[in-house]
């Protein structure tokens, strides 16, 4: 039995709908899945399988892409220098030689603290930043990189706050989200709570890593009890505060809209100038991630999506989210993409596997249209 799908695809983009339908048929438990994409200056796909195409859900580390976009705007404004030290903006920061560029590249070594954080602390970026400012790094800062799962937004956000007097959330709301009415929030307002669809557990079980491993520290799994990422955004406190590492709430339409605004894929004036895109989208931290042990690639704050998905240009940039969400902009192809789901995918990790087929179908359809 085919999964009912609602929404829109532009003429020529029917293969995107077909790929979406096939993935949902293969995974009946994938509830509240939503896919949206822009190409050639307009919305070309907006598809969902839930009862409401305006529903919101947890997007987790999609927040890191929002934080990177805000940081790019602040750098573009001349308020932050990528090659200045973090401590020049944040004097209490203990790693005096670390640059803003290195911090954005997940190179600080400050992936957590030995005693861990409580759920309330993980939801509060100022608390995380204060704790990490005097923490000991888990490797020599600048040497190698490792995924700062819960904390990169707090660290980068503190630099933005010290340089501008405004939080990442405030700048994002004022300059990106509110003017466009985008359904991607850092801090979900109480008036939007009725639209939130709770996160559902994966249909499979994974064991915990060794408690003394870097991945356990970075994902706060070395505490008793260990952090539960699946329930994190089911907490109103976390949704309301919108931590800049893992606190995004929204849907695929909102994700795609943010990345479309960044490069003008929606037909509007792009938020980022070409030279800013070039600086932030160039792969910077590549090779084996010291935390996850995987071969990964980060640009500055963003994941280097051009190295992840065949067919995208080198400077495609974006960020995935723990439950399987994905988002990116490809300035070379003029594409913006978003995907969200309420059911955690299995095996766990950012960017569910079905994104591979969706992105391939989108790239092929856009290429056919371009001739």
TrEMBL record:
SUPFAM superfamilies: beta-lactamase/transpeptidase-like. It holds the Pfam family Beta-lactamase. It comes from the Bacteria. The keyword Iron-sulfur does not apply. InterPro entries: Beta-lactam-related, Beta-lactam/transpept-like, Beta-lactamase/esterase. One of its GO terms (molecular function) is hydrolase activity. Coiled coil: none annotated. Keywords: Hydrolase. The keyword Cell inner membrane does not apply. Residues 21-346 form the Beta-lactamase-related domain. This is Serine hydrolase. It comes from Actinorhabdospora filicis. The lineage of its organism: Bacteria, Bacillati, Actinomycetota, Actinomycetes, Micromonosporales.
């Amino acid at each position: 039995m085919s999964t009912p799908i609602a929404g829109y695809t532009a003429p020529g983009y029917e293969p995107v709908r077909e790929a979406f339908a096939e993935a949902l048929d293969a995974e009946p438990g994938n509830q509240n899945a939503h896919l949206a994409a822009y190409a050639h200056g307009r919305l070309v796909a907006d598809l969902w399988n839930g009862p409401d195409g305006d529903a919101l859900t947890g997007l987790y580390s999609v927040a890191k892409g929002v934080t990177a976009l805000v940081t790019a705007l602040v750098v573009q404004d001349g308020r932050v220098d990528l090659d200045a030290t973090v401590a020049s903006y944040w004097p209490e920061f203990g790693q005096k030689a670390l640059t803003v560029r290195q911090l954005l590249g997940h190179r600080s070594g400050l992936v957590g603290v030995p005693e861990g954080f409580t759920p309330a602390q993980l939801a509060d970026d100022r608390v995380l930043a204060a704790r990490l400012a005097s923490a000991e790094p888990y490797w020599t800062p600048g040497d190698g990189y490792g995924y700062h799962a819960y904390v990169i937004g707090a660290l980068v956000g503190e630099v933005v706050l010290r340089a501008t007097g405004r939080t990442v959330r405030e700048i994002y709301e004022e300059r990106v989200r509110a003017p466009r009415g985008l359904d991607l929030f850092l801090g979900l307002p109480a008036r939007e709570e009725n639209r939130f669809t709770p996160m559902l557990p994966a249909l499979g079980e994974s064991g915990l890593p060794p408690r003394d491993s870097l991945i356990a520290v970075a994902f706060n799994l070395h505490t008793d009890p260990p952090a539960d990422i699946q329930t994190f955004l089911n907490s109103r406190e976390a949704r309301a505060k919108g931590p800049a590492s893992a606190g995004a709430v929204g849907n695929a339409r909102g994700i795609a809209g943010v990345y479309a605004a960044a490069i003008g894929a929606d037909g509007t004036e792009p938020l980022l100038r070409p030279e800013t895109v070039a600086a932030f989208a160039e792969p910077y931290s590549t090779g084996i991630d010291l935390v996850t042990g995987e071969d990964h690639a980060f640009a500055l704050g963003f994941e280097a999506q051009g190295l992840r998905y065949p067919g995208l240009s080198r400077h495609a940039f974006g960020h995935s989210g723990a439950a399987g969400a994905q988002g990116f902009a490809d300035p070379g192809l003029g594409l913006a993409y978003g995907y969200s789901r309420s059911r955690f995918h299995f095996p766990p990790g950012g960017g569910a596997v079905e994104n591979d087929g969706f992105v391939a179908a989108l790239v092929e359809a856009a290429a056919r249209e371009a001739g």
